[in-house]
């Protein structure tokens, strides 16, 4: 997490821009150009997505420290979409951005290790070490317990990467499972303590005075639970979805941060990607609108965090 924290500090902005491009919602001129070249195909859609992403990254790379591509939007477009995901990650890293792949992978043993190696590590091809995707972090579903997390931690240790485990997610029905009590403690809280334990295992002991290798996903739409988790998990870094289109605001996410304004990064996807629609500006200025929204979000967060840290 130290790499991510340094990038946040350098830009004075705890924002991660979600790259969740829906082909049907892209600017019409990008869709038309791609279809004119390659017809009504998955390849055309992936080309348009990649062009869109590159323009967004160019507009945001000096504003936000990180981007978070959601794997589903790329897998939706078959192998051309997966190629667009790989090229998006490579371009974002080339521009100095920290990349969190939001794939919510969860399996056990060699299968989980394969997921982690694919997204965070390398694969050996006849003695050559090759990087399939090369993200910096991966979201993980820990429903299968330690068997689904420890293989990923081995890859993290080998390659200097990290993971974010789903904890208290921002969706309305999350409480159907995550709020259930086990020995008097909510499931999301148990997951938080497990994250701290797994971070300690990765560090060879309990992390002290820093944030470890295993972060927690905790939604902006549940500020009371965010505050509780922050109090109980002083060395766990939070990935906070739910700001913007899902209804969370800066004051809702403030409890995720410690007294120094550290310890969390807040995601916004649709509000940034499709900001030109809300602005009502020309669609050809979609990247400029995304930049303006990211700057507005930065100011919004920093103003509230200044009060939070007093």
From TrEMBL:
The active site is at residue 104. It is an enzyme of class 4 (lyase). Its EC number is 4.1.1.23. Pathway: Pyrimidine metabolism; UMP biosynthesis via de novo pathway; UMP from orotate: step 2/2. Pfam families: OMPdecase. InterPro entries: Aldolase_TIM, OMPdecase_AS, OMPdecase_type-2, OMPdeCOase_dom, RibuloseP-bd_barrel. It catalyses: orotidine 5'-phosphate + H(+) = UMP + CO2. GO terms for biological process: 'de novo' pyrimidine nucleobase biosynthetic process; 'de novo' UMP biosynthetic process. SMART domains: OMPdecase (SM00934). Keywords: Decarboxylase, Lyase, Pyrimidine biosynthesis. Residues 14-290 form the Orotidine 5'-phosphate decarboxylase domain. One of its GO terms (molecular function) is orotidine-5'-phosphate decarboxylase activity. PROSITE patterns: OMPDECASE. Belongs to the OMP decarboxylase family. Type 2 subfamily. This is Orotidine 5'-phosphate decarboxylase. It comes from Ethanoligenens harbinense (strain DSM 18485 / JCM 12961 / CGMCC 1.5033 / YUAN-3).
């Amino acid at each position: 997490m130290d790499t991510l924290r340094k990038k946040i500090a350098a830009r004075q902005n705890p924002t991660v821009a979600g790259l969740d491009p829906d082909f049907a919602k892209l600017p019409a001129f990008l869709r038309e150009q791609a279809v004119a070249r390659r017809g009504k195909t998955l390849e055309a859609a992936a080309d348009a997505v990649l062009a869109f992403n590159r323009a967004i990254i160019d507009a945001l790379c000096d504003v936000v420290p990180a981007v978070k591509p959601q794997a589903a939007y790329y897998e939706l477009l078959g192998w051309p979409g997966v190629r667009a995901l790989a090229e998006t990650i490579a371009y974002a890293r080339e521009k100095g951005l920290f990349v969190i792949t939001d794939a919510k992978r969860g399996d056990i043993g060699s299968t989980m290790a394969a997921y982690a190696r694919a997204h965070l590590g390398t694969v050996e091809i006849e003695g050559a070490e090759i990087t399939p995707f090369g993200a910096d972090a991966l979201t993980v579903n820990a429903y299968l317990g330690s068997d689904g997390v420890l293989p990923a931690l081995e890859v993290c240790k080998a390659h200097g990467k990290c993971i974010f485990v789903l904890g208290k997610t921002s969706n309305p029905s999350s409480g159907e499972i995550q709020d259930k009590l086990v020995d008097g403690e909510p499931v999301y809280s148990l997951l938080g303590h497990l994250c701290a334990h797994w971070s300690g295992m990765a560090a060879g002991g309990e992390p002290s005075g820093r944030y470890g290798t295993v972060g927690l996903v905790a939604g902006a739409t549940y500020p009371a639970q965010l505050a509780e988790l922050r109090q109980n998990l002083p060395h766990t870094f939070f990935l906070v979805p739910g700001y913007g289109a899902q209804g969370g605001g800066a004051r809702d996410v403030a409890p995720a941060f410690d007294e120094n304004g550290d310890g969390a990064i807040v995601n916004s996807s649709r509000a940034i990607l499709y900001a030109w629609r809300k602005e009502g500006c020309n669609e050809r200025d979609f990247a400029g609108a995304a930049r303006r929204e990211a700057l507005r979000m930065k100011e919004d967060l920093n103003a509230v965090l200044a009060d939070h840290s007093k």
